[in-house]
Amino acid sequence: PLNVAAPFGTKGTVTIDPSTINTDSAACLETIDGNQSSYLADTINLTGNIDLESGSTPDNWTPLGTSSSSAFTGTFNGNGYVVSGYTITATNSNGTGFIGYLGSGGKVENLGVAGTVNGGSYCSVGGVVGYNGGMVENAYNTGSVSGSGFYVGGVVGVNDGTVETSYNTGSVSGGISVGGVVGVNSSGQVTTSYNTGKVSGNSNVGGVGGYNYKGPVETSYNTGSVSGNGNVGGGVGENYGPVETSYNTGSLSGTSSVGGVVGFNNSTVTDTYYNSTIFQASGIGSGSG
Question: CB atoms < 10 A from the CB of 172, how many?
């Protein structure tokens, strides 16, 4: 309640911003989720941890922002708090994650998520954001992320924006282009981010990024185990963009094009390292970069 009476002075103006929501309530967050069209451009601030589990059953969460035409373009500021106790099962290929589709101008910051995300055979699957066209900053995932399709990442599935100072500690598994931080870094950038979780997939599997199309991936690292068939890298599975000032100390296994830092490389890799006592082969699996 806000008393706007002025019994002892002159009357003024009070502005109540209708597009900012402060909450530590599971019910409030579920109301937003169930009426997304009203909140996609708003600022949502968490003021405490939120557990969406009902009894012993995790809540079925619909990713906030479901497509390019219904993208979340506001700001979701976790303020250092965590949302947990939910499961997500993909129903379309537009983006599966706590935030499904983050549009241009949208931002997710200072947020931890600890749910279960299953993308099935769909693409663009991430622990925090499925498709990122905006900014993901100071965000992390500790839950499991899985799928059998393309572009599965611990933090972001498909990155066309910026991912920085973010990390993943949960297990990540997928089909093609699977990464501890991002599944595919399409036309975005990944910086000062890391993965410690187990990463597995079929091809293009990397500790930081599964497939780096344009890059850059910089000042980032992996310590988790990485396994796949072809194009397996401690940092990036298949690389067509710059990889800089990064490193890997996680174990690696694969059948072809396995590298300490990059599986298949067709770009520049500079000031980047791997622990040769753990992986006793080359830093680059194959390629001409």
Answer: 34
* φ, ψ (nearest 5 deg) of residue 218: -145, 150
116-160 tens-digit pLDDT: 999 999 999 999 999 999 999 999 999 999 999 999 999 999 999
Report the distance separating Cα 203 and Cα 220, nearest Å. 21
Q: Is the separation of the CB atoms in 177 and 200 below 8 Å? A: no
Burial code of 47-81, b = ≥16 C-beta within 10 A, e = fewer? eeebebeeeeebbebbbbbbeeebbbbbbbbbeeb
DSSP structure class, residue 34: H
Long-range contacts of the stretch 6-10 (C-beta < 8 A, 24+): none
Tokens 């019994």 — which residue? 7
Cis peptide, bond prior to residue 216, ω within 30 of zero: yes
Q: What is the pLDDT of residues 20-76, one digit of tens each?
A: 999 999 999 999 999 999 999 999 999 999 999 987 889 899 999 999 999 999 999
Can you tell me the distance from the alpha carbon of 81 to that of 29, in angstroms, rounded to the nearest whole number?
A: 14
Q: Where are the alpha helices (DSSP H) in the chain?
A: 26-34
CA distance 272 to 16: 50
Q: Are 253 and 227 in contact (CB under 8 A)?
A: yes
Amino acid identity for residue 212 in this structure? N
DSSP, collapsed to helix, strand or coil, labels residue 263 as strand
Q: For residue 135, give both structure tokens.
A: 């900014």
Counting every residue written for the chain, the total comes to 289
What whole-number distance in Å separates Cα of residue 118 and Cα of residue 173? 10
Residue type, 284: I
Task: State how far the Cα of 35 lies from the Cα of 54, in Å rounded to an integer.
Answer: 20
Specify whether the CB–CB gap between 133 and 106 falls below 8 A.
Answer: yes
pTM check: above 0.90: yes
